[in-house]
Amino acid sequence: MNKENWWQRLKNRLPERGEKKRLPQRYRKLQRYIVLLMLLVTLIPLTVMAVTNAMQYQKNIQAERITPMRAIASKAAHSFEIFLEERLSAIHFIASSYSFEILSGEATLHRIFRILREEYGGYVDLGLINAKGKQISYTGPYDLLNKDYSNQQWFNEARVRGVFISDVFMGYRDLPHIALAVQNLNDQGESWILRATMDTKKFDNLISTMGLDPVKDVFLVNSQGTLQTDSKLYGKVLHQCPLEIPETEPGTYVRETTDPEGREIVMIYSRLIKHDFTLVMILPKTSVFKAWHSLKQEMSYMFVISVVLIVLVIFSSTRLLVKRIREADEKREIAFRELEYTQKLSSIGRLAAGVAHEINNPLSIINEKAGLLKDLVDHDMHHDKEKLMRSVSQVLHSVSRCRDITHRLLGFARRIGVEYELLDANEVLTETLGFLEKEAHHRNLDIRYRLSEEIPKIYSDRGQLQQVFLNILTNAFAAVDDGGRVTLSSWQKDAQTVGVSIQDNGHGMDEETKRQIFEPFFSTKKGYGTGLGLSITYGIIKKLGGEIKVDSKVGEGTTFSIFLPQNPPGETEDE
Amino acid sequence: MSDPTAILLVDDEEEFVSTLAERLEIRGFESKAAYSGDQALSLIENNDYDVVVLDVKMPGMDGLEVMDQIKARRPEMPVILLTGHGSTKEGMEGMQKGAFDYLMKPLDIDELISKVQEALGGRPESG
User: Fold this and answer.
1) Quick check: A20 pLDDT over 50?
2) What pLDDT digit, counting tens, does each position of A487-501 carry?
3) A contacts of B15 (beta carbons < 8 Å)
């Protein structure tokens, strides 16, 4: 499976440019994320607030506009009720005050009728009807004396219920009228009925005293939906009202609906308690919600403007923010590289001293061997060919020792950028230890190897790994006294990870130190440490996609464990 | 003819020290190579040397320690130290502790011989 990955990685081998190209994608993603988040946290509350406010306003405005109308309607219905009761009670009063016999007298009836008209107005006629339904006395404009009402419905109703108020009908001079009838009993226990007719001018007066503006319509209907007064919108009196008025208990109700002509209306209706009439008030919705509509429009404008502003601000500030982050990242990257470079130089300086020392030994041998050869020739002792050859081969051997040392140093110094190749972590570790072998030897350090031969090769950067190992080994060497022990281990942590640890039995660290060792400029080597070694080490390991862990106890020693991925990072991250 | 000057050479780098011994032999010195501080001390215990040439950097007991021990046994014994380049600090330290002088590796054999002669008080040497 790895073979394919290697190919891909080889193709991506021009790392710097490829990485730089990929970078903006990451920032775009960040920008998108921030913008989205900020839009959500600003627009959602704004929208929720706007909608709830709108709803609340709508409710309030509606209540503010409709409540008074409702009260007026209710009051008007009550006025109608009182008016009808009053008229009815006048008739009742007459029927109770005078006996049947007295009222039968035409002159008396006429006189009563005249007083009635003077006192109340609006009465058209007055008649007395006996138990058989015959009008036995009448005063009014028609010739209705002796008219038989026994078959008429109102007569029966009045007899059953005691009183009767008719629906509106066209009466005298083609004016709308209603009839009122009251039943009474004579001394013999026979019932008789006093009936009066009156025009409904008073209805119109009652409606006009409500003082409504011309866009509103108020009318009275009976239970069959017949108009009992003129309606501005739905026709003249006695026409069928096209609106459906729900059958309800007495009381005042509000209903929003659309009339048959498609007008949006608010209908306020109030049923009279004692009589079969309903007062209806029609408010065109437009008039009710005019204020609301203009407010809604203003609110919508405000909302849209706010949203546009928010979006603009979010976009521009996020862009600025991300730009700043990116700049900061780049600066940090540069600073880190510079630090890394500094650290590398300091490592090289440190190594150079060691190398100079190490190279001295083979040089001394070469010096002596060459001197010996010269001596042999000078003293004419050069015939022992075997001896000469031994010296020469020693010289050559020492030269190759020098070469190894210089190569190692050059190999370390050369690479600064990351270059991935297939590596054996054990080999890199042992090779790096080579730099410090002489020190280990002279200080009698006990170097133990617990390297697993089974670990897979990893795809990583040799120079960077060397630097990591060198930093940790140097620390381990510094931590132990002469004769101390340093153990190098390696193992396979899991299918994708190789573990390497460097353990010393030196003086260890306390918790406080342990917490800070990866911080830049933290150093316990007072005076001569840069305080960068482990922070750089940490940075390198992160860059290589690995992990570093430290365990330490004062007086017992320290273990640095490094976990390196088998494949370099960047293959699966990002998109 | 006086006895040849006996020099004890101490260094952990065997090839170096044995070759140096051989070259001194050619020049008429009696020289013995020791490969560690312990070996040197036991040789001194049983033999008589005029000068000890001692490498400072050695595993186990280092040069300065060995010198201390030699001085404890033979306070008059001149000791010439060998140091690597850039380690003059150790040479100076050694001189404070009683070394006759120090020389830097790689070594110039003529310089060594003249230092040995100086150490022996300009005594005419054999050879």
Assistant:
1) no
2) 999 999 888 899 999
3) 365, 368-369, 394, 398
**What backbone phi and psi angles, to 5 degrees, belong to A66?**
-90, -35
3-state helix, strand, coil in chain A (%, to 5): 55, 20, 25
Q: Please provide residue A336's backbone torsions phi and psi, each rounded to the nearest 5 degrees.
A: -65, -45
Q: How many residues does chain B have?
A: 127
Q: Could you write out the DSSP letters of every residue in B14-62?
A: HHHHHHHHHHHHHTT-EEEEESSHHHHHHHHHHS--SEEEEES--SSS-
- Looking at residue A554, the DSSP 8-state letter turns out to be T
Q: Do B60 and A444 touch (CB under 8 A)?
A: yes
pLDDT, average across residues A135-144? 88
Report how far Cα A276 is from the mean position of its chain's Cα atoms.
56
Residue A568's closest CA among A548, A545, A537, A547? A545
The Cα–Cα gap between A199 and A357 comes to: 135
Backbone angles phi, psi at A132, to 5 degrees: -85, -5
Contact A152, A140 (CB under 8 A): no
Judged against a pLDDT cut of 60, whether residue A13 lies above it is answered with no
Provide the pLDDT for residue B109: 92
Q: Which residue has the tokens 């320290």?
A: A558
Structure-model confidence comparison of residues A13 and B46, the more confident one: B46
Q: Which of B15, B64, B82, B83 is the mutation pick for testing A, counting most A CBs within 10 A?
A: B15
What pTM was computed for the model? 0.47
Tell me which residue of A345, A560, A351 sits closest to A436, measured CA to CA. A351
Nearest Cα to B14, choosing from B6, B25, B22?
B22
Show residues of chain A in contact with B23, CB under 8 Å: 368, 371-372, 375
Predicted-assembly ipTM surpassing the 0.85 threshold: yes
Task: Say yes or no for a CB contact (<8 Å) between A364 and B107.
Answer: yes
> Which residue in B26, B62, B86 is closest to A379 by CB distance?
B26
**Separation of alpha carbons A464 and A113, rounded Å:** 125
Domains observed in chain B? 6-119 (3.40.50.2300)
Residues of A in contact with B60 (CB under 8 A): 444
- In the numeric block, which tokens belong to residue A563? 């976990």
**Selection from A180, A220, A178 nearest residue A199 by Cα:** A178
- Domains (ranges, CATH) in chain A? 65-287 (3.30.450.20), 415-575 (3.30.565.10)
